[in-house]
Amino acid sequence: MNTYDYIVVGAGSAGCVVAEKLSADGNTTVCLLEAGPPDKSPLIHTPLGLVGLIGRPTYNWCYETEPEAELNNRRLFWPRGKTLGGSSSINAMVYIRGHRADYDEWADLGCEGWESHRLLEIFKEQENNERGISEFHGVGGALNVADGMYKNPLSRAFVDAACEAGLPPNDDFNGAEQEGAGYFQVTQKNGRRWSSARAFLGRAENRRNLTILTGAQASRVRLEGGRAVGVDLVVGRTPHQIECRREVILCGGAVNSPQLLQLSGIGDPDELSRAGVPVLHELSGVGQNLQDHLDMTVMIADDSHQAIGLALGFVPQAMRGLYDFLAGRGGLLSSNVSETGGFAKLNAESPRPELQFHFLPTYLRDHGRQLVPGYGATLHVCQLRPKSRGSIGLHSANPQDHPRISPNYLSHPDDAEELIQGVKLARKILNMPALAKINGGEVAPGRDCISDDSLMADIRARAETIYHPVGTCKMGVDDMAVVDPQLRVRGLDGLRVADASIMPTLIGGNTNAPCMMIGEMCARAILAYYDERDNTLTKAA
Question: Range with the lowest mean pLDDT among 282-296, 367-381, 481-495?
């Protein structure tokens, strides 16, 4: 049986950071487990390739929720990355940190050390922003952040239209103010995706003290005497066990981390008993507090035919885009599709934006799994701080079974009202003069969908996730907290969680960059603990 100092479960946005940081000094051994395959597919490294990844179970867990009561009992598709880099290898590469007040709220809830001014320094240290160093941005870090190399004409028109509708122009959503409309920066380098795996594992993968196992699905964390001592895993169909001398760090994300805790007998006794899992450590908050950004779309036809279209007339542009990409000039294939967007307040007195927009110069239905012929544009709008709460649970004690995902979208009435207002603002933007020349009419919800009741009916019929689940292993100091501010699982030794699941509340924006920051915070806490312990032992000797 192989033994390591640290076992990191999940090579996603946070896990790659944790593994790189813990293996940096060469004095400790680290094993990084990833259930999916290596990130070798050209679709991963080609930004526009995300369209081909969304429904592929090779690189995507392709989860589905339980029937959602407020969404016509629909089961919603929940893509999550299953390869080196996790969801950072299949996402739209949008680099957003969230609002400063989001993190100060965590600190106010008892998460000491997570204040926004402290976290800003970590974001800057991780970043190599091609715009250069500034008060809000850093250079020299592992994570390359760039302006997109390809800009569709409709993306510029959206920004102009949003400003005409009342949003201020904003060329840096991670700068002094978040509110406004503009171009997103992206996690790319030379027009290629720059995932957490490329950024952090890229500098660590050849270290002799780091073992990376792909196709290795963790099935249980082993506990002895209130301490995590190892991990059971399956490679192919063969079970294995590995042991750790120091700590196990779970980085599977808001779905997989609570699932693995529950499979290990850590969680709410009633939940575990229903699935036939013996209770080893009672921790009622595991799997609770699930939050996600529910998203709606407004689509218009593009009479100018400048959009990314599914049409014979688009073939020459597509071929030119392939040539430009292979020649290293960016081009169409370097587009993340969601090139522009924005953040909006529902009223002037709001302390931070309640809505986020992602504009796509193309039609998008059913996460891109349903092809729509012709030329069009899609404006996504999501409510940033939902009050609805859901949960992650087990269907059975079998680790191969997908977990039970119950987001409980719109279970709080305030969420529906804010989303209706968001759809109205999205419609207003798409009908501004800057888009008048191309707007060939609304395709969805449709011109007959006018009243609040009809908009609500459309939301129930079409709303989907925009891929930001968090909160299921909540950090905090209250009875429902799963981890403390050092990300240690409460009541157990040698076990931590570092991913989106630890967020007490959902941040206002995309969650990829915050997850990398969380990985760094965890690694620093671990190294500080063992440095202090070793210094104490040295003095005692």
Answer: 367-381
Among candidates 469, 365, 390, which has minimal Cα distance to 66?
Answer: 390
pLDDT tens across 194-219, in order? 999 999 999 999 999 999 999 999 99
pLDDT mean over 95-116: 98
Strands (DSSP E) along 68-205, which ranges?
Answer: 77-78, 127-129, 143-147, 180-183, 185-186, 188-189, 192-193
**Closest residue by Cα to residue 91 from 190, 200, 197, 8:** 197
CA-based nearest residue to 270, from 256, 257, 252, 287: 287
Residue type, 21: K
Instruction: Give Cβ neighbours of residue 230 (< 8 Å, ≥ 6 apart).
Output: 1, 7, 221, 222, 241, 242, 243, 244, 248
Identity of the residue numbered 386: P
Q: What's phi and psi for 169, nearest 5 deg?
A: -70, 145
Length of the chain: 541
- Burial string for 295-326 (b: 16+ CB within 10 Å, else e) reads bbbbbbbbeeebbbbeeeebeeeeeebeebbe
Beta strands in 372-453 (DSSP E): 376-383, 391-393, 404-406, 439-444
Token pair 């946070």 in the structure block, residue: 14
Q: Nearest 10 degrees: CA dihedral of 392, 395, 400, 402? A: -50
Q: Is 380 a catalytic residue?
A: no
Residues whose CB falls within 8 Å of the CB of residue 131, separated by 6 or more in sequence, listed in order: 137, 147, 185
* Secondary structure of residue 275 in the 3-state scheme: helix
Q: How far apart are CA 441 and CA 298, in angstroms?
A: 11
Best CA proximity match to 157, nearest among 40, 31, 300, 55: 300
* Partner residues linked to 6 by β-bridges: 30, 247
Q: How far is CA 127 from the centre of its chain?
A: 17
Catalytic member of 137, 293, 358, 468: 468
The DSSP code for 488 is B
Q: Tell me if residue 333 falls in helix, strand or coil.
A: helix
Confidence of residue 541 (pLDDT cuts 50, 70, 90): low
Measure the CA–CA gap between 330 and 326, rounded to whole angstroms. 8
